[in-house]
Amino acid sequence: MIPKRTGNALRLALLVALPALASAGWKGISAGEVELSATADASEVALDGTLTLRIAVTYASKADTGNLEVPTFADFDVVSRSQSEQVTFTLSNSTPSFRRTVITSLALTPRRAGDLTIEPVKLEFRGQRFQTEPIQVRVVPAGQALRRRPPGPDRLADDRLGESLDPFADLHPGQRDLILRAMVDNERPFVGQQVTYSLYLLARTNVSSIEKLQIPRLDGFWSEDVEAPQQLVPEQRILDGVPYTAYLLRRRALFPLRPGKAAIEPAEVQVLTGFGMLFSRESSRRSSQALQLEVQPLPPGKPAGFDFGNVGQWTLSASAEPSNAPVGQPITFRMVASGRGNVRDLRLPRLPVLSGVRAYDATVSDKETIERGQINGTRTVEQLLVPERTGAVEIPSLAMDIFDPVQKQFRTVRTDPIALRVDAGPVGQPAAEPISQNLLAKGGIRPIRLHLGSVQRATPPWAQPWFWPALGLPPFGLALLLGIARLRRMLQVDPGRKRMELARSAAAKRLRRARALLQRGESVAFYAEIVRAVTGYLADKQGIAAAGLTRDELVSALLARGQPEEPVRRLVRILDDCDRARFAPGSGESPAREAMLGRTDQVLGELDRGTR
Amino acid sequence: MILLLAALLAAAEPAGAQLFADANAAYLSGDVSRATAAYEALVSEGVASTELETNLGAAYLRQGKRGLAVLHFERALFLQPGDDDASADLVEVRRGNVDRLEGDADEAGAETVARLLTPLPGTAAAAILAVLWPAAWVLFGLRLLRGGPRWAVVAAAGCFGGALLFALLTWGAAAGRDMAMRRGVVVAQAVPAREGPAEKSLSRFEVHEGTTVSVDDEEAGFRRVKLANGLTGWVPAGTVELVVPPGWAGRPVLTGSARAVQP
Fold first, then answer.
1. Which of A55, A119, A335, B170 would be a feasible disulfide site paired with A318, CB 3.0-4.6 Å?
2. Interface touch A459/B61, C-beta < 8 Å
């Protein structure tokens, strides 16, 4: 619950919206503990008109207050003066941050026409003096309309002063007495560029306290609280001629994460209105309007290797201490990136490998601050370097590509090269003690790899099911070939040899046929068949064509083939007997023919055995 | 031509290189959780890389997860057995292991043998064996069947000798791979090793994260592990991760396995 502030807060009389502050300019200084700024609500004013000078002093502590010196205004008259104070308490990176802002508003009327100057505002704080820059104002003759810049997307994109925009310029409340109004200062930011989201409560009735405030989910943004007021600080606003009291409920910095349309859902608030404990206290619930943002992608021309987190206005510096060191003594290298933007997403360059220097793991620390509604940050990278040899060592210039959303262009920021001198250590002095980073638990491991390789770790060939059977194929194939060759040899038949082998059986067959002829009584054919059996056998088995030979030549041929003489003689006798019986029919009785068959078979058998 | 070259270069860039670079940047900026998540995303996308496994091991180690660190260094060594960074990191991690094995002289040789055998060029040896072995038989067959020239006999003998040598190399690599396939790492902080695959079984000893074991058997949600000194026990399967995950080196992909990747 945010209680209403009832102390010495004076109502701040901001008469009109401040759309022209960018051209009128804010002039301020910042010294960490204190910020001073002076802004005018218009760069041009009529001689009979007024302009508002707003002086804001923000302190980072509760107690101290500086001495503010308002100028004497040689060209202006002060027609009214008011002062208010607002206190904010935020947690950033788990670090509490306190801010107290004292706002002094002066309504000024010009004394003459022409180009006039508002003198610098001065502040003395803790013995130091600060002052703003003078502000130039053009005063036109009385009755002329003021020239103000028209609002538009480009101007919205350029204006980075969240507080300077009027969130209620397009608001027409009608009869409503309580309005919750959400606004952003830039509806077309780049990816990674800060957008300030503000939530105001406008009331025509007295607001006692805020019972419940529901901030919408901010998907698609990285967000950070800029202002979360603990007390309700009223500001007077005139909307359509009706006075309203405006209360800032919350201000957040949003950093879009991706291009395209981004929606912010309505916020909700539960407000307790009325006076004191008894008078018409009432609880009311209000919702804000939804917001639509068109997040722009970064423009073309992105440098190679550009990191999309490096959006903002950054500077880069580097240092090394000490610059002279003996071998083995650590040197602290420090690289600092600071500026405006989302420091958490920043990618800093990496120190390259330095020959002769051992580098330990870097430690990174971030610090965020809020200045005039803008998130500023500092990233510090510290790395211990231990020189391992004497001589000169140079830490080269390190470069970081950034995109500056204000200038809408890519830039490269660089560190300066750093020269180091490494001397020989004193004799007997031990090298530096092992530092904690070298311990296992603290990362005593090797630096990580930066380039991704790929390995095709497929199943090795020997684990494939076909491998070992494939190795068995060659011997199996050879065995198969040998077997086939042997089989073919076995199956190959020489006709002559076959005839020779079958000669005896062919003769036997003919003898069986002769026996059949004998049984039928065909004696001539019987003897002719016996002769064919003998001559066929001699031709097939012995290779002798008996038909063309005399009996003596036949005998000689058979004897020359190693046949015993006795069977040869008996064979010749059988042939002679057959010839005689064929050509002298009727000779020979049936038993003699039977005997002829037996004799022939016997002689052929003996010749066959003799041949083997 | 330039466009073609650029296209070729882009095609040559390994898949996931941008995510890998983001993860490295997160690691170097100290955001180790983010780096680990990005590395794991690459692993789940099926990227098998020595560099990825080494970096993931380093990230886990910086998170204090020693078991997972050892696991990923082991995986890096499986992918690239001679990787110097992974070897050195593994030695560093093991210095801090809780488990100190006693009487490991007899059994520690197994890991040494595995470490020696795994780098053998098994694939190349198998390929050469697949060439020499048939060549030897062809030459021998020529001589035998066709009465080929005398040099065929000499060449066949040479091929047989070479085939024997490369068969030995292949066998060695296969043996090393078999050991690697059975290697596991304890990823739970501490886990009792039991006599049987059941919670009710008697616990014989306890193993701690980062200890490398040999997984001999698996049953009913338990794995039978063997330490380097021969101690054997059953531990819940989820407490021991296999160095060679499903999908690698022909290991079957298990349904529902978060690490089921196919390199």
1. A335
2. no
